[in-house]
From TrEMBL:
Signal peptide (residue range): none
Domain of life: Bacteria
Protein name per Swiss-Prot or TrEMBL: ROK family protein
Family: Belongs to the ROK (NagC/XylR) family.
Cross-referenced Pfam families: ROK (PF00480)
InterPro entries linked to this entry: ATPase_NBD (IPR043129), ROK (IPR000600)
C-alpha cells in the first residue's frame, strides 16, 4: 500500500508520496516561517492532495517537533512553531484531505525510518546536532509513551558536570554532547569563538586541546550507549545528525569506549551505524508510522 509522509518544521513543511518500498514517487515543499497557522494548514493539505491526485492512499503520517499530544493531534510547546501551540491541526488536515492522519514527533519518525528494511527486534536511533534526541522501535512499532516523551535521550543524566541543559538540569547528554555543547566547550577552552566545524578541523590536525575535548565527548557519549545497551539491549544503534554524519570516525571511537562499560557478553554486541535516509528520514518514518497505525486500527 502506498503512503504519504509529512514533515513539519520551523522553516518548511515537506510532503511526499511513497510506494510500497518507501521510495519517493512525488514530493512538494512549502515554507512555514512567519505564515499564519490557517494558511500553512491549507498549503499542507493542498500538497497532500497534489502528491496523490489519484487517491492511491487513505492515510497520512505526520511528524513535527514536540512535545505533542498525539491523541488530540496537536503540538503542545515547540519553540520554533509558536503559532501551532495547542491547536488540533491533525483533525483539520483529515477534514481537508479526507484521509486518516497519524502524528508523532520528528525524532521518532526518523527512528521509524531506520526500521525500513531492518527486521531487528529493537532499534535505537539517536541524532546529534544542535541538540540530542532519538527514538526506539520495538518489533516494528514506535515506543513513544502516552505524550510522546519517550526517546528523549538528550535528557539522560550522564555526568555531574555543571553545564546546564536549557530546560532541566546539569549533566544531561545534550548539555555535554550536542554540537552546541561542543562549540561552547571549545570557545571556553580556546577563549575565542570556535564553531563545531572548526573544532573538528583542529582535531584532524591533532591539536592537543581539540583531542582532549573530543575524547571527553566520546567518554560521555559512550556512557549513554552503555546505559541504553544494558537497559533495553538494542540490536542496532543508528546515529544521525551533523555531528555524526560529518565525523563518522566518532562511531568507532564510541564503540571502543563503550566496551569497558558493559557486561562481558555485550562487548561484541555493540553495533552502531550511520542513520539511513538523510534529510528524508522524517518523511519516510512519518509515512511508515502512519501506515502502521492505519493497518493496526483496521481502518476502512
Amino acid at each position: 500500500m502506498k503512503s504519504i509522509g509529512v514533515d513539519i518544521g520551523g522553516t518548511s513543511a515537506r510532503v511526499a508520496l511513497f510506494d510500497e518500498n518507501f521510495n519517493i514517487i512525488s514530493k512538494q515543499i512549502t515554507q512555514t516561517g512567519d505564515k499564519e497557522f490557517d494558511d500553512i494548514i491549507d498549503e499542507i493539505s493542498e500538497m497532500i492532495n497534489k502528491v496523490d491526485p489519484d487517491r492511491l492512499t487513505k492515510v497520512v503520517g505526520i511528524c513535527s517537533p514536540g512535545p505533542l499530544d498525539k491523541d488530540l493531534g496537536m503540538i503542545l510547546d515547540a519553540p520554533n512553531l509558536p503559532k501551532w501551540r495547542n491547536k488540533p491541526f491533525l483533525r483539520l488536515i483529515e477534514e481537508k484531505t479526507n484521509r486518516k492522519a497519524f502524528l508523532t514527533n520528528d525524532a521518532n519518525a526518523a527512528a521509524m525510518a531506520q526500521a525500513v528494511g531492518d527486521n531487528r527486534e529493537t532499534i535505537v536511533f539517536m541524532t546529534v546536532s544542535t541538540g540530542v534526541g532519538g527514538g526506539i522501535v520495538y518489533k516494528g512499532e514506535l515506543m513513544e509513551g502516552k505524550k510522546v516523551y519517550a526517546g528523549e535521550f538528550g535528557l539522560m543524566i550522564i555526568s555531574d558536570d555543571d553545564r546546564n541543559h536549557s530546560q532541566l538540569y546539569a549533566g544531561t547528554l545534550e548539555s555535554l554532547c550536542s554540537g552546541t555543547a561542543l562549540s561552547k566547550k571549545a570557545t571556553q577552552v580556546y577563549k575565542t569563538d570556535i564553531s563545531t566545524k572548526e573544532l573538528f578541523e583542529k582535531y584532524a590536525e591533532n591539536d592537543e586541546k581539540a583531542v582532549e575535548i573530543i575524547d571527553q565527548w566520546t567518554e560521555y557519549f559512550s556512557r549513554a550507549i552503555a546505559n541504553l545497551l544494558q537497559i533495553i539491549e538494542p540490536e542496532i544503534f543508528y546515529l544521525g545528525g551533523s555531528v555524526i554524519t560529518k565525523n563518522q570516525f566518532l562511531i568507532d571511537k564510541v564503540i571502543e569506549a563503550t566496551k569497558n562499560k558493559v557486561y562481558e557478553g555485550l562487548k561484541n554486541r555493540i553495533f552502531i551505524e550511520v542513520a539511513k535516509f538523510g534529510d528524508d528520514a522524517g518523511l519516510v518514518g512519518a509515512a511508515k508510522n502512519g501506515l502502521n497505525n492505519f493497518n493496526g486500527g483496521n481502518n476502512d
